[in-house]
Design goal:
alpha/beta; Rossmann fold; three-stranded antiparallel beta sheet; 11 strands; about 20% strand; elongated
Length: about 230
């Protein structure tokens, strides 16, 4: 069974109603991204950050995986599928994907300041001033701008083993995630599903559609070739 690796970004979840700050001039839900998605923002105003991510959990609880997520999961019938996502939502998992790597953390988890103690919180809020077991401030389990991406090496290893790579809903311009494309072995086909013009990523097969429509086209292409053997 061939190994199919997905690299997904905000465009994957946009049709589910999860907003993407990259299409709104540096704003995320009308907040300055650096105020709510950077380690500096956390040190400057942790109360604002807690409330922002509490609101995001409420939002996440109200949305559902879209057809794009469901097709990714369904392809596990024909391929060994790995999903490497920059998204912090759990829509891939809810759609049925069994192997998901979250490069930028997970909205439904919380941790201590050093990220050594991680626990599930689901869609519940973090109370202002809440403490972790070690006495540090409890925070969202999110990788913010200015922080290391601990799973990037694992992701690179997975990409290096791929027989097919599919990029969905991300321009692959933000590092270190953008560097994953360089781990694709020579000769491995790369598909790009995105309705927007994406800067050149090399020799890729472009499907210029939103995630749900593009994934339907991709699935047909994948299953009508010898890839699935």
């Amino acid at each position: 069974m061939k190994r199919l690796v997905f690299l997904t970004g905000a465009g994957m979840s946009a049709e589910s109603g999860i907003s993407t700050f990259r299409d709104s001039g540096g704003l995320w839900e009308n907040y300055d991204v650096m105020k709510v998605a950077s380690i500096e923002g956390w040190y400057e105003n942790p109360e604002l950050m807690q409330q922002f991510y509490n609101d995001r959990r409420v939002q996440l609880a109200k949305v559902e995986p879209n057809k794009g997520h469901l097709i990714v999961a369904d392809l596990e019938k024909d391929f060994r599928v790995s999903v490497i996502t920059q998204n912090v939502d759990n829509l891939h998992e809810r759609a049925g994907s069994s192997e998901v790597i979250h490069l930028h953390g997970e909205l439904t988890k919380v941790c201590n300041e050093s990220k050594t103690q991680v626990s599930e919180i689901g869609y519940n809020p973090i109370k202002q001033g809440a403490k972790a077991e070690d006495g540090s401030r409890l925070r969202p389990f999110i990788v913010w701008f200015g922080e290391a991406v601990p799973l990037i090496e694992k992701a690179a290893e997975i990409v290096s083993q791929a027989d097919i790579v599919v990029i969905v809903g991300t321009s692959m311009q933000v590092y270190p995630a953008a560097g994953l494309i360089h781990y694709v072995r020579k000769g491995v086909p790369i598909f790009l599903v995105d309705p927007n013009d994406v800067p050149a990523l090399g020799n890729v097969i472009v499907i210029k559609e939103k995630a749900s429509t593009g994934m339907e086209i991709l699935k047909e292409k994948l299953l009508s070739t010898p890839f699935g053997t």
